[in-house]
């Protein structure tokens, strides 16, 4: 027997409600999400750019006083965790979400920041510990700030840990898209 499936467009209907139950199926889902978001040569092609930025930060900020004002070094552990967070968020965020700015901080942590304008921005601070600090401002909707533990021991744990963060980042760009359509 031959089974044929017709897929119209580029969306996969089963992606929406699919709940992976094994490590293999989680890896397949992650690969699908990454391929869905990776539009080479487009504005969504930000994963290689962030990887290059992290290599630059490793080269320029891994020693104490890298800024000439007494900054703590950015550790390999912090860079590795930021790379994992970046890759995971890339697969979780809607297609077309711009990439973050990566900024080394004087305390040895890394900041990932998304901004539309002075009233609409969201930032994460990632260090060599098991939590992320975040803050966001969403125009008239108000702002948020807090911290959240993250489980970076495996991809599934990290995806679970970043669900709220991905939702907040998405809030920035849902508003911007609807505002552009209204014009």
Strand and helix layout:
Elements: H1 14-17, H2 23-37, H3 47-61, H4 76-92, E1 101-104, E2 110-117, E3 120-126, E4 131-138, E5 143-149, H5 155-161, H6 163-182
Antiparallel strand pairs: 1-2, 2-3, 3-4, 4-5
Helix pairs in contact: 2-4, 3-4
Structure description:
This protein is an alpha+beta fold and 183 residues long. The protein has one domain. The chain is 43% helix and 19% strand. The protein has six helices and five strands, in the order ααααβββββαα. The protein has helices spanning 14-17, 23-37, 47-61, 76-92, 155-161, 163-182; strands at residues 101-104, 110-117, 120-126, 131-138, 143-149. Strands 1-2-3-4-5 form a five-stranded antiparallel beta sheet. Strand 3 and strand 4 form a beta hairpin. Helix 2 packs across helix 4 (76-92) and helix 3 packs antiparallel against helix 4 (76-92). The radius of gyration is 18 Å and the shape is globular. The chain starts with 13 loop residues before the first helix and ends with a helix. Mean pLDDT is 80; it is low at 1-16, 39-43 and 175-183.
Observed structural traits:
globular, disordered N terminus, five-stranded antiparallel sheet, single chain, alpha+beta, 183 residues
Number of helices: 6
What fraction, in percent, of the residue positions are helical? 40-55%
The residue-averaged pLDDT reads 80
Described by its quaternary structure, the protein is single chain
Q: Runs with pLDDT <50, length 5+?
A: 1-16, 39-43, 175-183
Q: Structural class of the secondary elements?
A: alpha+beta
| Main beta-sheet annotation | 5 strands, antiparallel
What is the β-strand count? 5
Strand content: 15-25%
Gyration radius (Cα, Å) is 18 Å
């Amino acid at each position: 027997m031959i089974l044929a499936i017709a897929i119209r467009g580029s969306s996969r209907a089963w992606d929406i409600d699919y709940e992976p139950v094994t490590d293999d199926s989680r890896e397949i889902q992650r690969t699908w999400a990454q391929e869905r978001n990776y539009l080479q040569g487009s504005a969504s092609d930000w994963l290689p750019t962030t990887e290059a930025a992290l290599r630059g930060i490793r080269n320029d900020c891994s020693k104490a006083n890298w800024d000439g004002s007494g900054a703590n070094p950015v550790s390999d552990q912090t860079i590795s965790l930021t790379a994992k967070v970046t890759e995971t968020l890339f697969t979780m965020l809607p297609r077309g979400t711009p990439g973050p700015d990566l900024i080394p901080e004087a305390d040895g942590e890394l900041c990932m920041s998304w901004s539309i304008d002075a009233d609409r921005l969201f930032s994460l601070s990632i260090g060599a510990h098991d939590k992320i600090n975040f803050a966001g401002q969403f125009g008239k909707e108000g702002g948020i700030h807090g911290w959240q533990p993250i489980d970076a021991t495996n991809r599934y744990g990290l995806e679970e840990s970043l669900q709220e963060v991905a939702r907040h980042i998405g809030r920035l760009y849902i508003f911007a898209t609807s505002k552009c359509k209204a014009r």
